[in-house]
Amino acid sequence: MIVFCRNLIYVLKHRRLMGVLFGLLLSATAVYVSGPYLRAGYHYQAGQKALERRAFIEAQKHAAVCLEVWPRGARSHLLAARAARRAGLLDEAQQHLDACPPSPDILEERQLERMLLQVQRGGLAEVDRLLRQQVELDHPQSPAILEVLSWEWMRTFQLGEALWATEVWLQRQPREIEALVRHGWICEHLSHKIDALEDYRQALALDPHRDPVRQRLAEILLSLHQDGEAAEQFEYLRRKRPEDSAALLGLVRCRIQQSRLDEAEELLDDLLAHHKEVRAALGERGRLALARGQLEQAEAWLRRAVAALPHDKDIVYNLICCLQRQGKDGEAEAYVARLRQIEEDARRMEKLVQQVLQTPKSAPLRYEIGILFLRNGFEEDGRNWLRTALEQDPTYQPARQALAQYQPTASTREHLGER
Amino acid sequence: MMGFVCKLASWRRGVGKASVVCILLAVVGVGVLPLCVSLRFASHLRAARQALEGHDLVAARTHLWLCRDLRPGAAEVQLLLARASRLGGFWADAEFRLNLCQQLGGASEAVALERTLLRVQQGRWSLALEEQLQSYIDQNHPELSAILDTLSEAYVKIYRLDSARYCLDLWLERQPNNLRALLRRGWVRERQHQFEEAAADYRQAVAAASSSSPPQGGGEEGDTARLRLAEVLLFLDRAEEARSLFESLRQQRPEDIEVLLGLARCFRKLGESQAAERLLAELVRRAPRDSAVLLECGRLALQQNQLEQAENWLRQAAELAPYDYHTHYTLLLCLNQCGKRDEAEEQHQRVRRLEAAMIRMNELTDLLQTRPYDADLRCEIGRLFLANGEPREGVLWLKSALQVAPAHQATHQALAVYYEQNGRTDLAAPHRRFLQAPSAENYHDRLLSQPDLRP
Q1: pLDDT classification of A109: cutoffs 50, 70, 90
Q2: Residue A362 has what pLDDT?
C-alpha cells in the first residue's frame, strides 16, 4: 500500500508520465467502444467482396456478424438479403428485406433487391420492363440484374432474351466467369457449338477448377470429333475426381472414337464395376463389341441398353446395325420403326424449339415440347416445359392435365436424388 | 550543450504548434467536408438541370447519378432522374423513380406534374388530363416550357396538329429561339400545307443552332433543321438554295443517304442530269433496295425520256413501296408515256385506291382535331394504316382506340384479325376472349401492357 501510494505520488508529481497514462487509458477506451463497430465494418466489406466472388455462404456469415453489431442496420440487412437470395434462400432474403429499416439512403437499392427477389420467385412479368430499362440505362447494379434475368430466361428457355442478357453482362464485365458459362450454355442450346467452346475455354482459363464447365467443354469437343483434346479434358477430370462416372464414360467414348478399343474396354470394365447405375455404359459396351465384330455379345449388351434407355437414338441405331449384320432383318424392322419415331420427334422438337425462340410466350408450343420430352423419356425436362407453359398461361388446361398425369416415377425420383 | 538544449526546447515548441495546427485542421476538415459535398451536389444538380433543358439526357443522367452517390436520399435527384427517363422513353424507370421520389418525401405537386406528363407521353390521354394540363398553362406554371414540350410532342404523335400548334406557339412566345420548338412547329406546318411558314421556322432554327454555343442538341438538331429546310425549299422549287444547303450538309455527313438523295433531286430539278446520274449511281450501289432512291432514278430517267429504264426503276420502287402514292403515280405517268394502255389502266386503279385512302386519311385526321376521343375514328385510322402496309402505326392507333374505349368491339376485332394473320395467336387470344365475353372481364390494362402494343 505504501509502495502504491508512493508510486501514485511519483506519477502525480511527473505530469508527463500522467499524460502518457491518460493517453493510454483514452486509447483503450476508444478501442473498447469502437472495436465491435470496426469489426462489423470489416465484415461488411468482406461480405461485399465475398458476394463479388460468388461466395454466398461466406457472405452470409459476414452479414450475420454485421447484424450482431447492428441488428437494425439497413445496409447489413441488405447485404444479408442479397447473400441469401443469391444462395437461393428466398424466404430468408425476404425476411431480411422486411426487417430492413426504410432508410432513405438505401431506398432505391432495397426496392431493386425486392424486384430481383420477385423475379427469382417467378414474378418476372411484372418487373421485366423496368429491369431491362435499368440495364439499358447502365444502372450500377446491372450485373446483378443481368444475373437474375439471364437465369430466369434460361430457365424458361427464352434463349434470345437470355443471349442478350449474357452479352450485355459480358460487355460490362468481360472477365465474369458466370456470364461466360451462361453464354456458353445458351450458345450450346442454340447449336452454336464453336461459340460455346470459346466461352467455356475462356471460363476455364479464368478458373481452371470449374469441373462441370470442363465436362461440358469435353463433351462438345467429343461431339465435334476433336477426340484428342476431349480425351485430355476427360482424363484431367478423371484424375481429379476418380469417382466421377460422367468423365469416365466420356473417356470411353473418346477411346472408341479413336479406335483404341482395348483401352476403352478396360475403362468400361472399370466403369461397370463401380457405377452399375450408368445405363449409357451398356450402350457403349454394345458399341465396342460391335466395333470388334463380336455380334452376339454386342446384341446382348445393346438389348440391355435399349431396355434401359429406349429412346436413345444411338443405341437403337447400333442395335439395328447389329441385328442386320446378323441377318435378323425381321427383328431389326421393329427397331427401325422406333428409330424413325425418335428421329421424327427430334426433327419436330428442333422445329418447335425454333418456334419457341420466335414466340417464347406461347403456352401451346411449350406444352407440345413438354409432351415430346416426356414421350422420349426425359421426364424432368418434360415436366419443366409443361410448368413453363402454365407460367405463360395459367389457364392452359392441356398442360395442367399432362402435369397431373405425368407424376415423377420412382426411377426418376431416384435419378434426381442421385443428382 | 546550451545550444542543444535551446534547439530541443524550440523543437518541442514546434511540435506543440504543429499539433495545434493539426487539431485545428481536423476540426475545420470535419466542418468543411459536408460543405464540399453540398457544393459538389449543387453544382452537379445545376449541370443536370441545364443538360435536361438542352435535352442532353446522357449528360443529365451522368450528373444526376453523381448527385445520387453524394446524397442517395435526395428526392429531387429522383425527380430529375424520372424526367430524364421520361424524356428518353424509359417510362417504367420514370414511374419507378417517381415512386421513390414520393417515398423520399419529394414535393407532391412536382411529382404529380411529372406523373401527368409521363401519362401524356405514354399516350394515356383523357379529357381530365388535358384539362389539368390546360390549367397549368393558364396559371403560367414555372415548368411551363417542359409542359409545352411534352404536350406538343404528344399531340404530334397522335396527329392533333391544331392542338400541337397551339402549344408550340405558346412555347415559342416564351422561348423564340428554342430549336426543338421551331423544328416541331415546322414539321406541323408542313403537315398543315403551310410550306412557306414551315421554311421560316426551319430557317429560324438554323439561325438559332448556329448562334447558340454550345450548339443546342449537340449540333445534331442544327443539321436536322438544315435538312428539313432544304427539303421544304426543294418542295417549293427553290432548288438552287436547297442545293447549297445539301452541299454543306454533305460535307458533314458524306454517307447520309437522305442528304445525297436530296442533292440528286436538286441536280435533277436544276437540269444537271449528269451530276444527278452520277450521284444516283452511287446511291443505288449503296442502297439498292431503297424505294426513294429507285423512285428518283425513275424520275430522272423519265425526265431524260429514257422510258424503258424509267419503267424498270419505277417498277422496282413500286414493288418495295406498295403503298406509296408518289411512286405509283410516277409509274402511272411512265406507263402512259410508254403507251402501255392496259397496264396504265390497271395502275390507274391502284393509284385511285391509294388516292382514296389518302383522302379518307386526311378526312379522318381533320375530324380527329375536333373529336379526339372518338374511338370509332381512331379505330378506322388504325385499320387504314394496317391496310396500307403500316402495321406499327396501325396497332398504335388501335391501341389508342382501346385507351379511349376499352370495350370497343371493332377495335378488338381488328386487332384479333391482324395478330392472327401474322401468326401471333397468343396476342390475338385476349381480344378473341373479349369478343366472346365482352362484359366478363376488363381487359384494358392487360391488353395495353402487351409489349408490342406500346409505342
Answers
A1: very high
A2: 85
Chain segment A311-331, per-residue pLDDT in tens = 888 899 999 999 999 989 888
Q: How does residue A417 score in pLDDT terms, banded at 50, 70 and 90?
A: very low
Partner-chain contact B103 A107, CB within 8 Å: yes
Residue A194 has pLDDT above 80, yes or no: yes
- The parent domain of residue B275 ranges over 237-285
- Contact of A108 with chain B, judged by CB distance below 8 Å, is answered with yes
Q: Residue A329 contacts by C-beta under 8 Å, 6 or more apart in sequence?
A: A323
Last residue of a domain, one of B92, B124, B156: B124
- Looking at chain A, the domain(s) classified CATH 1.25.40.10 span 1-98
Q: How much is the ipTM here?
A: 0.74
What secondary structure does DSSP assign to B17-29, as a single string?
A: HHHHHHHHHHHHH
B344: CATH: 1.25.40.10
User: Is B8 a member of any domain?
Assistant: no
Average pLDDT for A33-49: 88
CB A363 within 8 A of CB A395: no
Residue B158 and residue B107 in one domain: no
Nearest CA in chain B to A140: B65
Residue of chain A with shortest Cα separation from B78: A108
A241–chain B nearest CA distance, Å: 48
Q: Which residues of B touch A (CB under 8 A)?
A: 61, 65, 68, 72-73, 78, 85, 90, 92-93, 95-96, 100, 103-104, 423-426, 451
B402 and B448 fall within a common domain: yes
* Contact present, A383 and A367 (Cβ < 8 Å): no
| Domain assignment present for B10 | no
* pLDDT above 90 coverage of chain A, percent: 48
**CB B226 within 8 Å of CB B245:** yes
Per-residue confidence (pLDDT) for residue A409, from 0 to 100: 57
| Conformation bin of residue B256: beta by default, left when phi > 0, alpha when psi is -120 to 50 | beta
- Chain A hits for B432, Cβ within 8 Å: none
pLDDT for B439 equals: 53
Evaluate whether A67 touches A76 at the Cβ level (below 8 Å). yes
Please identify which residue in the block is written with the cell numbers 421426364.
A379
Q: How big is chain A, counted in residues?
A: 419
CA–CA separation, A106 and A70 (whole Å): 16
Which of A417 and A161 is assigned the larger pLDDT?
A161
In a domain, B141, yes or no: no
Cell numbers for B80 = 430529375
Residue A104: which of B73, B90, B424 has the nearest Cβ? B73
Q: What is the pLDDT of residue B14?
A: 66
Which of A104, A129, A362 comes nearest B92 by C-beta? A129
- Cβ count within 10 A of residue A114: 18
pLDDT at A403 over 90: no
Nearest to A285 by CA among A229, A376, A270: A270
Topology, domain A1-98: 1.25.40
Let me know if residue B248 belongs to a domain. Answer: yes
Identify whether residues B37 and B117 lie together within a single domain. yes
SS3 A89: coil
For residue A416, what pLDDT band results from cuts at 50, 70 and 90?
very low
Residue B454 confidence (pLDDT): 34
Question: Would the pLDDT of A412 be above 70?
Answer: no
| Total domains, chain B | 5
What's the average model confidence in pLDDT over A268-297?
A: 85
Give the distance from residue A252's alpha carbon to the nearest chain B alpha carbon, in angstroms. Answer: 47
Residues with pLDDT less than 70, chain B? 1-16, 212-219, 438-455
pLDDT of residue B4: 61
Residues of chain B positioned with their CB less than 8 A from the CB of A130: 92-93, 95-96
Q: What is the DSSP string of A127-145?
A: HHHHHHHHHHTT-TTHHHH
Alpha-helix runs per DSSP H in B54-74: 57-70
